[in-house]
Every structure is written in structure tokens, then in C-alpha cells.
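Q: What would this complex look like in 3D?
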Amino acid sequence: NAGVTQTPKFRILKIGQSMTLQCTQDMNHNYMYWYRQDPGMGLKLIYYSVGAGITDKGEVPNGYNVSRSTTEDFPLRLELAAPSQTSVYFCASSQQGANTEAFFGQGTRLTVV
Amino acid sequence: RKEVEQDPGPFNVPEGATVAFNCTYSNSASQSFFWYRQDCRKEPKLLMSVYSSGNEDGRFTAQLNRASQYISLLIRDSKLSDSATYLCVVNKNPGTYKYIFGTGTRLKVLA
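A: Here is my prediction, written as C-alpha cells for the whole assembly.
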């Protein structure tokens, strides 16, 4: 099993550009999440999804959009990139249930210049 | 007050030492608690869940104190390989999956 796969691993964007961060999981997990981690900080939840067709905002959703058309895929869209969006982005998935483990992808390091 | 607070450290300890970290949370209705480990520039990985009765996994012991709203992680006989950042994670709203991460406590085990 590949687990949670994120692409790209690194990206440099110019201010105002857009891009999509890809995330796919092969564990048949219903729940998927997008987090961002700024240097020296904890992870902050951007968006999450409890199943195909269902998404909801986390703590820091502004400037991002998501979609969940399939169980496997949960892409994160950045519109009009800003320097404040420079961060490491982690996608994660988990089974249904309150005490279940979240599995993370290896992260996407994004720099906006 | 932050929803989940941790001492950022670093905690520098010699090999073989016992070290403990605490994490406080603000929402008394929180139901799920975890410790994750994050190595430098890597993704977080689950170390252990924290159960009401406390739980142990080898050299690691996790405790939950609901009255004082904190969880703890105890590492015995520290190894060089334990050097990492330990993230406290709390599900603040029962029935949702909005996991809140602390900023992490950095541990360095010295030879």
C-alpha cells in the first residue's frame, strides 16, 4: 500500500498564481484532511471531508478550496497565492471513528514569492 | 488561551534519562487525545492514543487528567532515536473530526 500520496513535494509560486495540491489515498478511508504547518508551529486544519461529496471548513480555510469527488482523492486549490500561504501542507486520512489514527502524506513545501 | 498548549522545549536529556511532557487543552468536552511524533522535515506519525485509564507502550506511557485538562507523555530510558518533536493532538468537538494540534515539544537525546 502506498498510503497517502501528495504531489508535488516542492513548489515555488509567484504572488497571484494558482495551483492545486494533489492528495490521494489507497486505504479506503472516508475521512480526509488538509493541514498547513508554519515553521516552529503546530498543524492547522484547513479543510476536511467525511466522505465523497462532503467537505467542511477547518480553522484556516481562507484562500483555499477543496473538492471530494471520489473516496480516494482530496485536492486542495490555492487561488491567488499570497506570501502568507508559504508553508508545508500535509494531507491526511483516517477511518471513521473518534479514536482512529490519521495517516499523513509526506507533505508539500510551498513557497510564494 | 490556546486550545492546545505545549512547552516548545527543547528538552535536552542524556541517553537513558526519563523525560516527561505535558499538554493542556481548553475544551473540557474533548474526547480523543493522541501523541504524534514528527521528525525534522517529515510528516507526523502516531505514537500512541491516550485513554482515560492511561496506557503504556514499551518505554512510553501516556496519561490523561480530565480534572486538570492535561495529557502527559513519559519516556523512560531515552534513546538517541527518540530525538524528535512530540505533538499533542486533541479532538475538541465530540462527533467531529477537527483534530487540533499543539505546536509540539522538541526533544533532543544526547549521547
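A: To summarize the key features: The mean pLDDT of chain A is 93. Chain A touches chain B at residues 31, 33, 35, 40-45, 48, 50, 58-59, 90, 94, 98-99, 101-102, 104-107 (CB under 8 Å).
Q: Very helpful, thank you.
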